[in-house]
Design goal:
The structure is a single chain. The longest helix is centred in the last third of the chain and has 19 residues. Helix 4 links the parallel strand 2 and strand 3. The chain is an alpha/beta fold. It contains ten helices and eight strands. Strands 1, 2, 3, 4, 5, 6, 7 and 8 form an eight-stranded mixed beta sheet that branches.
Length: 270
Amino acid sequence: MAVRLFEGKKQAAAYLQYRVAPHELTSRIMSFMEKKTPKQFNLAVDVGCGSGQGTTLLAPYFTKVVGTDISPTQLEMALASGFPANVSYRQCPAEELPFASGEVDLVTAMTAAHWFDRQRFLQEADRVLRPGGCLALLSYTMDMELEYGDVSNTLNDICKEFYAALLPFRNPYIGSSSLKIYSDMFASCSYPDKEWNECLCVKRTLPLSGYIGMVETFSSYQLLQQQDPAEAERLSNDIRNKLLSTMKVSSPDTEVTVIVKYFYWLAHKP
């Protein structure tokens, strides 16, 4: 069965505030689609859309974009955050999409498919996609990096401490590597026209507090916080203080460059 997470209001708000919207990947998806159909498309469905950061990126390219999620709290956040007129949201499981067979031009899932019942989701995506339609799944590795002056290497050693401390709290459903999950899904997709891409580095300038906030949205940190709130707070504070000390600054509003490493795969339905 699929796993349900990120459903509390505080978690949904943090998800909206801190998660990176990968607009660089949107252009790659559209370039891949336009190899088969070089025109305006009708319907895109963003599955596991969360608070809608990725969903709205698709709006310029489609007549309609529908974000779906099983969490009403995440969808409330999406609806409250403002979105283009051609975007709407539906509550449903990833494995039971409310669309007719062959109705959809693009099915995508942005940092969500690892939580689905993966084979059932792939079957459902195949059902709703039209011939020539596109399936696009993307996510990122947990090992984000920081750039700041000449201390980047030291900062990243500290970041690795953060990730190592969270590793024991990783949900067993996704195992030790979400990249392997996506690679296995790619291998199981029978579409002959498909493309695997392992590393696209997306850079964002954020306050240091934004980087910490992003890590705190990870499911592993959320589990630690549920089990031992004091330890979760101690860990965040310790990492923050070490990073500030290395940067020789006092304010967590100091901006750093965050490097997020995405991987993704794309496939055309025959």
